[in-house]
Amino acid sequence: MEKKIKACQSILDLIGNTPLVKLNQITQDLKGEFYAKMESFNPGHSAKDRIAAFIIEEAERKGILKEGSTIIETTSGNTGFSLAMVAIVKGYKCILAVSSKSSQDKIDMLRCMGAQVYVCPAHVSADDPRSYYEVAKRLHEETEDSIYINQYFNELNTEAHYRTTGPEIWEQTNGQITHLVACSGTGGTISGTARFLKEMNPEIRVIGVDAYGSVLKKYHETGKIDKNEIYPYRIEGLGKNLIPEATDFDMIDYFIKVTDRESAHTAREIAKKEGIFAGYTSGAVMQAVKQLHEQGEFTESSRVVIIFPDHGSRYMSKVYSDKWMEAQGFMDAVEESAQKKVEI
Ligand code: PMP
């Protein structure tokens, strides 16, 4: 009898079940133990693979998607990549409206994955017809047999993490997790994961990471959107200028804000100290953990899970480029420069 070949049936079989990795050096001065949930181990290198597969498979189950259908979305890049990947494997078309704030690497990658990409101005309000929300809505109306994923307002985004990320963390920590620290963009990751974990143990503290220039923290504290809180910032995928319905604010105990500059330096520090080449928001969430330590959030018995959403390779022309860091005014320490000139 022919022996069975041990292979995944497609790249999509590799989504989820990402590893949890103990952080050893960067956390040396902090109380407790810290573990990174490595979402870069998804085949599309980010947590967004989970929602892309889950939302598309739900639509298939409901008969909404059929052969040749078109998937439409707005995205800072990661969700787009994941949707393009799932669309290719399953035989759908993919159209993406992305913000001009996204790195050129990300846009090139999306096009290489077969997606049709529309680049829209970043600093216009959400209801401006040029915004990526409005462009996606219009494309959805104009394209027959299309679905609009609408990750910021789609409860399936949150449910994908409730069904996968939450149970994985609970199982990996043997239920010993005391804190979850995660970035909030759509809020799907933090809300869905937290909902599962709090069902298992309501004592688990859930801390959301927000950007200066975003409304999430203030909204969580006051229930109001403060327009003065909105201004441009560099970190992609973190924070928001509107309130996403995918975020369940009741699941989040506290929001903490981080700066572009400190998050960038901390992303570089993760690489140098842990050998983990992670994305900009991994720097942001790690920076938040340092600030939380300063605020006395942790004790020696804390078991903290930190979600690292994506891989550093997506930021070669940004956080991991000395030139970019200098252009932002982030690079005042000479020893930071990786490029040492050799005198001949
Ligand atoms: N980090 C990165 C790099 C992202 O692209 C996103 C998604 N916008 C997030 C963090 C936040 O995840 P979520 O949308 O699930 O809140």
Describe the structure concisely.
This protein is α/β, with parallel strands linked by helices and 344 residues long. It has eleven helices and ten strands. 48% of the residues are buried.
What does this protein structure show overall?
- This protein is of the alpha/beta class and 344 residues long.
- The protein is 35% helix and 15% strand.
- The chain is built from eleven helices and ten strands.
- The protein has helices at 48-61, 78-90, 104-112, 132-142, 155-163, 165-172, 188-200, 216-222, 260-274, 280-294, 322-327; strands at 20-22, 33-38, 70-75, 93-99, 116-120, 146-148, 179-183, 205-211, 254-258, 303-308.
- The strands form two sheets. It has a six-stranded mixed beta sheet with strand order 1-2-10-7-8-9. Strands 5-4-3-6 form a four-stranded parallel beta sheet, with helices on both faces.
- α2 links the parallel β3 (70-75) and β4 (93-99).
- α1 (48-61) crosses α2 and α5 (155-163) packs across α7.
- The longest helix is centred in the last third of the chain and has 15 residues, at 260-274.
- It is globular.
- The chain starts with 19 loop residues before the first strand and ends in a 17-residue tail after the last helix.
- The relative contact order is 0.14.
- The mean pLDDT is 93.
- The protein binds 4'-deoxy-4'-aminopyridoxal-5'-phosphate.
- Residues 76, 78, 183-190, 237-238, 279, 281, 309-310 line the site of 4'-deoxy-4'-aminopyridoxal-5'-phosphate.
- Its cofactor is pyridoxal 5'-phosphate.
- Keywords: Pyridoxal phosphate.
